[in-house]
DNA sequence: ATAATCAACTGAACCGGTTTAGTAGTGATT
DNA sequence: AATCACTACTAAACCGGTTCAGTTGATTAT
């Protein structure tokens, strides 16, 4: 078996308690004794048992993250891996680990949170993909599980939030398109059930209003590639079809751009396209995608830090506001087609 | 505080021991008593404390996974999220959770494994991205940490492996290209430090040999998009430049295809391209990418199952062999350019 | 009738830490 | 010299389970 605190105590000729004090930097031992104990512990290669520590201090030394996604979609999102890496960089500095849960079916989600809470597997969770009137807020409150949310929920939430405002990124995209002469700028939104789906649509509407343009070219999709195709088709079928589309994520922008091209439209000649996330592959599309770059790594760091602060009581009480995302202009956006060109542009795709 | 086993014992009028026996389905209690205890436990809403359980049974009820990647690369790989989802589907059936660790720097990797092992945070780990002469095998043996490896290491390993042979997929790609009339089929490999980088190259060599072709158009890259560009450029600079390139993953194929197009080559007219992984976005490239589809979800399931079997001693001793990946033919591959066309094809890119 | 066996159950030890209460020893205070 | 305060330390309780060693009472064997 591994070396325990009793072994150290015996070898150092002191009691268990003294060893505990010495190792945790608490008062109650003289410097000389502390030195000796540390020395002995090191020699014996003592490593504290997380389990024992957890039992007596009623902590799990772990944070939880539940990803509730269709497994098909999981691999398509560049956000999570980098986000998780960000969480880890923070946790690595403290003595915490990350427990990851994947809920592939909606009903599995609640079960996942209960599983994390029940046995005391984690000390808190990071809530992502917050939804409109998110039922998980109540669930976590019921489970008495500390949490931080990514973006502030629209329902009343007692948990600190770590937010990255979509507005600036979307505004920048719309302004960029307006500057290129676009008037009919559409938006393919993600599911409006998600607050980031909503906030991006609202940001688009606000930016359009600010530019004095009407925001009626909206199609709701679900952040998936097929959804992007369907929503794009819907917008392109309209008589007042857009000359530019702002997508709520890269995957939809990618599939939307692909669809438009397959319908004979030139991107950006006939249709300008912007994405959101700056997935790496978007640089290698034809044309490379103009998109909005967030920093999931930083987001992960901040979320983990906020949760740790909350756990040890040093939480400021204020939400964390992250740096706004930035627009990366690439070749999928260009000048609005001239009026003449617009009239003679390829026929709208068949229904 | 939460309700403990003592509360249940008291409420049921029995000893702690009896409650434990009853709840774990062990002999030592009559059916009547067992019923009563279960009933009381249910009424009180008792949930076993994972920590206490872990301490007395010396188990962590968790498996570990260390992803050692540059954080920039993490988001680009569709493999991990689906793989993790697969692990989870298996773990959800048992009472285990997944502890995820991200090692962004090489030297952080060993630390990550030690961290998981030291406090007894996990009962075993799943080893991914196995390398040539992988030092982690020795490390895990030293740490006395059970493990399964994804693919069989080339060094001697005491751990069961869950393998998915690259050969069939790569062979299928090469055969497909040969059938299209290609003679000069190159390979852009992933880092040969990884055994899956090696095995894909070996599979390409074997398939070329089988077709009576020489396998000399090889360029090593590192599974990244920029690496794919560089390796593609290298191959295209050669006087005997390939008319088709088999890439070791989708990301390199994507950036390679993009680069070739940027050099004025037509894909697949001048150059056919195949990927590996079937990342979703590859369907929406222009042209859509011919690629090799693996099943990371299944792989995750199998790996978790193998590790759990090993932990409870029911491991068969044999490696798990997964179904071979399949070739998905899309538009990035086409007939080899005619000899004349080949001579008059766009000039090779400048150095 | 008595011993042996067995099922059903209890009490306590145990896992490896933390923490509280208490003890010894030292030095300062009056 | 007695009191007090304080430091350095120890012993033991505690966290919430599991498990071992008994104990009891009923059943079976002789």
Overview of the structural elements:
The structure is a homodimer of 351-residue chains. By secondary structure, chain A is α/β, with parallel strands linked by helices. Chain A contains 14 helices and 12 strands. Chain A has helices at 5-12, 16-23, 31-44, 50-57, 71-74, 79-93, 106-118, 135-143, 166-179, 195-210, 225-237, 250-262, 296-311, 339-343; strands spanning 62-68, 97-103, 124-127, 147-150, 161-163, 185-189, 218-220, 244-247, 272-274, 291-293, 320-321, 326-328. In chain A, the strands form 3 sheets. Chain A has a 6-stranded parallel β-sheet, with helices on both faces. Chain A is elongated. The model of chain A is unreliable at 340-351 (pLDDT under 50). The first copy, chain A, binds a DNA duplex (30 and 30 nucleotides) through residues 4-6, 14-21, 24, 27-30, 33, 48-49, 51-58.
């Amino acid at each position: 078996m591994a070396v325990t605190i009793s072994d150290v105590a015996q070898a150092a000729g002191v009691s268990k308690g003294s060893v505990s004090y010495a190792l945790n930097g608490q008062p109650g031992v003289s410097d000389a004794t502390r030195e000796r104990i540390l020395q002995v512990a090191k020699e014996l290669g003592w490593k504290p048992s997380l389990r024992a520590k957890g039992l007596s201090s009623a902590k799990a030394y772990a944070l939880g993250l539940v990803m509730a996604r269709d497994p098909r979609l999981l691999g398509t999102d560049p956000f999570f891996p980098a986000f998780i890496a960000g969480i880890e960089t923070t946790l690595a500095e403290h003595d915490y680990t990350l427990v990851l849960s994947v809920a592939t079916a909606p009903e599995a989600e609640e079960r996942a949170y209960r599983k994390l809470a029940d046995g005391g597997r984690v000390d808190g969770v990071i809530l992502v993909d917050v939804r409109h009137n998110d039922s998980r807020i109540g669930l976590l409150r019921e489970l008495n599980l500390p949490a931080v949310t990514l973006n502030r929920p629209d329902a009343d939430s007692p948990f600190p939030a770590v937010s990255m405002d979509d507005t600036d990124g979307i505004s920048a995209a719309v302004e960029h398109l307006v500057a290129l002469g676009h008037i009919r700028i559409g938006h393919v939104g993600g599911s409006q059930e998600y607050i980031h789906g909503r906030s991006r649509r609202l940001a688009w509407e606000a930016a359009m209003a600010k530019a004095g343009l009407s925001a009626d070219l909206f199609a709701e999709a679900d952040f998936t590639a097929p959804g992007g195709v369907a929503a794009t088709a819907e917008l392109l079928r309209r008589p007042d079809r857009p000359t530019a589309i702002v997508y709520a994520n890269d995957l939809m922008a990618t599939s939307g751009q692909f669809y438009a091209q397959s319908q004979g439209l030139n991107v950006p000649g006939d249709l300008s396209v912007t994405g959101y996330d700056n997935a790496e592959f978007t640089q290698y599309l034809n044309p490379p995608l103009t998109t909005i770059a967030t920093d999931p790594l930083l987001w992960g760091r901040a979320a983990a830090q906020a949760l740790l602060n909350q756990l040890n009581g040093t939480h400021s009480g204020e939400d964390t506001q992250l740096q706004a995302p930035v627009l990366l202009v690439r070749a999928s956006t260009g000048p609005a087609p001239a009026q003449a060109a617009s009239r003679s542009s390829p026929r709208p795709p068949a229904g």
